[in-house]
Structure formats: C-alpha cells, structure tokens
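Notes from the 1:1 (GR / supervisor)

We went over the backlog. Supervisor wanted to see one worked example end to end before approving the batch request, so GR pasted a single chain during the call. The sequence is below; no edits were made to it. Supervisor asked that the structure be written out right there so they could see what the output format looks like.
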Amino acid sequence: MSRLARLEGSARFLALVKLANVGLVLIWGFAVTFVFVRVLPIAEFQAFLLLVAFGNFTISAEFGLTSIIYARLRRHWLSNGVDDDDGGFRLEEMGVLFLFLGLLVMGASLILLVALAAGWLSTGLPLLFLLFFLSACLNLPALLAKRALAAVDGNFLWEGLDCARRVVTIGLLLAMLAGMDPRLSVALQLIVSVVVIGYAIGHVHRRLAMKRSHWLAFRVGGGHVRAHYLRDIGASAAFTVSDIIAYNAPYFTIALATSDPRPMLVFDFFFKMSRSLSMLVRATVEAALPRITRAYHAGDRVRLRQLLGRALGAAMIFAVGLSALLLLAGNRLFAILFDGRATINRADIILMILALFALTILCVSVYVQAALGRFGELLARSLPFLAGSLASAPLALLLWPGRFDLAFLGFYALTLLIVAGVHLVSLRRLARA
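Structure output shown during the call:
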C-alpha cells in the first residue's frame, strides 16, 4: 500500500487535514473583507458586498447536484464499476454535470454584466467585480472536483491541493495591501484555482479510466440523467431551497417584527457561531464518510452503527468546545464583533448552546444521508425546520412582545431541538436499514 493510500485510510489524519483546510477557508473569508474594505472606497465596498451575496446565491443554485454525483459515484466505485441495475452511474454523467455548472456560471455572469451595464450594480471597477465573481463561481467546479475525488478515495489529495490553493490565494489577497493591483491579484487567484481544479479533474479522469469522448457525450449522459436523476434532483433542489430559507429567514422575519436592532444582532451572532460549527462538523464527518459509505453499501449494520456513533461523538466535541468559549467569553466576543452597540446576557448564551448541540446532530445527519443519496428523507425532515424558522419571530411577537429577543431565541432553539430529535430517529432507522 502506498504512503498516500495509508494516509487516505486514516480517518484521524484525514480529519486533521480537513480541519486545517477549514481554518484556511475561514481565514480566506475574513481576509476578503479585511482587504477589500481597505482597498476600496466605502461606496464601492457596499457594492462589493452585494456582489458577494449574488455569488453566494449562484453557488447555492447547484441544488445539491454535487452531493448526488458523490452518492452515485461512491456506490459505483465501491462496487468495482458494477452497479446493481441499469440506473447505476455512467461515466458520461460527469460531462453533463460540468456542462450544467458551466452554463450556470455563464448565465449568472451574463446577469452580472447586464447589472453592471444598466447601473443596477454601480461601480467604477467593473473588471475587478467580474473577475472576483468568476473566481468565486469556480467554487462550483471545485466542489464537484472535491466530491468526485472523495468518491474514488482521493480525499487526502484534494485537501492537500486545496490547502495549497488557499495559502496562495490568501497571499495574493494580502498583496493588495502592499500595493498590488486588485485586478491582477484576483486574476492570479483565478488562474491558480483553474490549475488546481484541472489537476483534480485530471486525476479523476485517470482513476476512472475515462476517455475524452465521455466528457462530450452530452446526449448519452443527458438521457441517463433524465431517466435516473430527476427524482433525486427534485428532492435535492427542494431540500437545498428549504435549507437556505430556514437558515436565513430569521433575518427577514425579525426585521418585519421589530425595529430594535438587538434581536437581529443576537441572531447574527448565533448564525456566525453556527456556521463555524457546521464547517468543523462537516470536516469531521467527511473524514469518516469513506468508512461509513463502505459499511452502508456492504450492509454491515454493526460497523455502520459504530461509525455513526463515533461521528456524532467527534462532532459533539466541537459543540462542547464552542459552548465553553461562549460561556467564558461570549459577552466579550459579542461586544468586539458589534462594536459595543448591544449586549448579550447569560440566558441568550444558554439558549444558543442548546441550539448548537441540536444543530450538531442535524449537521451529522444531513452530511451522512446526503452522501448516501437519501435526499427524499432529508427533504421530509427539513420541513419542520423551515416551519419553525419562519414561525419563531411571529410567535415571539404574539406571545411575549415585551421580551421579543429572548422569546424568539427560545422558539428558534426549541425548533432545532425538535428537528434534532427527528434526525436522531432517522439515523437510527438508517443504521437498521
């Protein structure tokens, strides 16, 4: 066994590499704001934030297709290329999915160009904005490359490549502060990303013994996708939309319910903590997915239960650590983040901690079941979260208007606890399947 294969087979080492990459992603996200707020005039920076939001929306519009390809390709890989029926994975699917993502980026870029030309997005730096948008949209093929490599036991290779990419792009971002032209910096970041993604896809091409014709067989691949993907695509798209609305709806419902800024700031603080936790949990779960998927497809229920228990336990360590941080320094962090414009109390922190523990269970379930292609199950379990997220602010305003902030957080935490219970039941059924 090669050294790379041994590293790939170590869940602990793989988790460490993935966590290092998560750290670089967080640094990169902070660096984007840190740098651009200093190199752009404030009016340009406000327009830049709208560009970032549009980029995030575009990336979300892949509607879980990369999760579908992981689930199908992983089953194909573990069966040594022999699927159980004619609905199994076909190599021509890869080209069709890359074509779809390419068209998505082209369509979004066209919308951006129209917005710039019509003055809807006002900026004196249109080339910079377009380059940054394209750089951000490269996360779509990067995500597909990551999932494809992971499906063929190439997790470690991708994490190494992506860590190198992040280090270089962070360096190029910071070079703007030393005087590098922002357009040159972003263009170089774009080139670095293209090279890394191209190498990763080339590795998948070689490992699957693909031919050039497989990438261009859009009619064959498209027919297979229409025949066997539509149900998964529909469920995955609906789940993605439900999830996006559920996580972001409180920003809008709180704004409609009250003009007091404190509830919005408290929720934004929780949202930032929850996103950090979900990224850490995802890295941990993804490190265990090679073994979890192998046990599931082999029908080894005892091993599957053991691995699911370990994944939950490891994820809970991060929840405990973040909870301890909130208890010890939550007030200080909140004051620093929001420049002392509001305060947070112990009751808020306790409710946040309950919500974070519930969110941990939810994240483990979602990441595992998406990897196994159980999108219908995930959609059904996302609806209570969507309903509770939409209803929390109206209920708080109706039942406890005098303490709207605390009531909202209480209802939101209760929603997550109920949804976590639903997902625990789903995981128990999965382990028995």
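Supervisor's comment: The radius of gyration is 22 Å.
Batch request approved.
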